[in-house]
Amino acid sequence: MKSSIIDVPRKHDQEDLFGIKVYQDALIRYIKLTDTPITIALQGEWGSGKTSLMNLLRWNLCDTDDAPYFPIWINTWQYSLMKSANQAIMSILEGIVNQIGALNPDEAKWAESKKKIGGIFKKMATVGAKVAVSAIGGEGDVVDDLFESDDKPSSDIVRLKEEIAALIDQALQKNPDKQGFTFYIDDLDRIDPPVAVEILELLKNIFDLEKCVFILAIDYDVVIKGLKPKFGELTEKNEREFRSFFDKIIQLPFSMPVATYTVDTFLVDALKKIEFFSEHELDNQSLAEQLSEIARLSVGSNPRSLKRLTNTLSLISIINETRNEAGANVDSQSKIINFALVCMQIAYPYIYNQLSEEPDFKSWNERIASK
Q1: Which of 80, 246, 253, 303 lies 20 to 30 Å from 350, alpha-carbon distance?
Q2: CA–CA distance, 165 with 163 (Å, rounded to integer)
Q3: What is the mean pLDDT of the chain?
């Protein structure tokens, strides 16, 4: 017996309990065949499996034998902890560049590039990364500190892009079996939405390079929140501006297929592990379908919500075992009722509280309904 179902992203060697393999395989094939540069957004609420899918994409595209891509992985939330917005953006950019540089076969060239890029970072930090991105994107006034006037004016941001492109080319020349880089940008929806939008602009402007595939874990709702300082509250009149920004950054939006997840498979596996139901009981297909339907109508099919449900059930089982010194068996029907009540407690706490106060729900009247 296990007392908990841990909430960690799925790894490549774990069973596909939610039935996502068909989508995973389609994305892998799409990325292998795509032209570059391209940015893919994995969209979904917290706990919907975005990081798990990114893990699977990385394994198949980068970590297996003869994999076609180099991986660059950035957890934006970790890079932004205890930092201001500008510091977080610079830290993320530095993390990406350092991972690219670590793949460079020529240490002398990497040392030279690192020195040049370090100087550019200092200037960006002085004027602010957001202003720098706006300048190169043509969305704001040109910042004098970021530009030099020679025969042909050239910004330090453009040179930064050129240095990064050179590092990528050098790594690929040394490894002709590789066709490019995949950048996995995780947890954008866990940081402040305006900062997430700034990071999107940064990636678009600096890493819009051939042989680069960006895979972002972010939801459209986060982009909407992040654009409010720029466009105001979302209305029918300005909705097109919000959508145009998103469409400009993201070439392929992929919504996590939560509605099609095979909830019954996951539930049966989890409930067996915590021994809330016996294996014999769960071999009953009708029971499994009934439990799945109760969960779907309450906590839904979000993997994180389902894990919280099973952990709560596990604790209840342990409490009941502690109380029940005689060890009397609980029948299946009582377990189903307990299962449904826990689902209600998680999904509809107000209704559950009313049921606790007045458990004879068959006698509920207009007074209770009005409450």
Answers
A1: 303
A2: 5
A3: 83
Percent of the chain whose predicted confidence (pLDDT) is above 70: 89
Would the pLDDT of 328 be above 80? Answer: no
Enclosing H/E stretch for 155? strand 154-155
- At position 207, the amino acid (one-letter code) is F
Q: How far apart are CA 4 and CA 15, in angstroms?
A: 17
Q: Read off the pLDDT of residues 63-91 as tens digits, 9 standing for 90 and up.
A: 999 999 999 999 988 888 877 878 888 88
Helix (H, G, I), strand (E, B) or coil at 201: helix
**How far apart, in Å, do the first and last CA atoms of the chain sit?**
41
Answer yes or no: are the C-beta atoms of 101 and 111 closer than 8 Å.
Answer: no
What is the greatest pairwise CA distance in the chain? 91
SS3 category, 5? coil
Task: Report angle CA 104, 98, 102 to the nearest 5 degrees.
Answer: 30
Instruction: List beta partners, residue 147.
Output: 155
Structure pTM? 0.78
**CA-based nearest residue to 94, from 199, 219, 222, 242:** 199
Q: What is the dihedral of CA 108, 113, 118, 120, to 10 degrees?
A: 160
- Helix ranges (H only) for the chain are 21-33, 50-58, 76-80, 85-102, 107-127, 129-137, 156-174, 193-206, 220-231, 239-249, 263-274, 279-282, 285-296, 303-323, 332-347, 349-357, 366-370
Q: Write out the two tokens for 269.
A: 């596996």
* H-helix or E-strand spanning residue 147: strand 147-148
Average pLDDT over residues 95-99: 91
The model's pLDDT over 133-156, given as tens digits with 9 standing for 90+, comes to: 554 444 434 334 443 434 333 477
Q: Which two tokens stand for residue 335?
A: 């377990």
The token pair at 275 is 């021994």
Confidence check: pLDDT of 289 > 60: yes
Q: Locate tokens 């049921």: which residue? A: 355
